[in-house]
Amino acid sequence: MKLIRDFALILACLLVGKGLAALLPFAFPGSILGLFLLFLLLSTQLIPLAWIHDGGQLILRHMALLFIPVAAGLLGYVDVLSQGLGLIIGSALSGLVLILLVVGRLYQRMQP
């Protein structure tokens, strides 16, 4: 019965987030808004952590299973991904280098 309550609270935050996203004049993921709402509720202690802890732990424990449909869906686009593999890897590496340079530079500036 406790897991049902946990999942109901998490699902309620998700549905409210999707409702808010539908009201916005621009596209924004409702799941992100729901997650932010859940964060606010937990931060302000309107919802105690104990109310969603077990349900959240269960979801985290089985998270790998939740990514299987996404990975299976990507298999349909192997030809498209293989054509742009160089660009994907180049973008990821250049982004990584840029982030490292910016963070390193900011760290140097913040040191007295």
Automatic annotation (TrEMBL):
It is found in: Cell membrane. The chain crosses the membrane at residues 31-52, 59-78, 84-107. Keywords: Cell membrane, Membrane, Transmembrane, Transmembrane helix. Its main location: membrane. The keyword Membrane applies. It comes from the Bacteria. It is a multi-pass membrane protein. PANTHER family: HOLIN-LIKE PROTEIN CIDA-RELATED, UPF0299 MEMBRANE PROTEIN YOHJ. This is CidA/LrgA family protein. It comes from Zobellella iuensis. The lineage of its organism: Bacteria, Pseudomonadati, Pseudomonadota, Gammaproteobacteria, Aeromonadales.
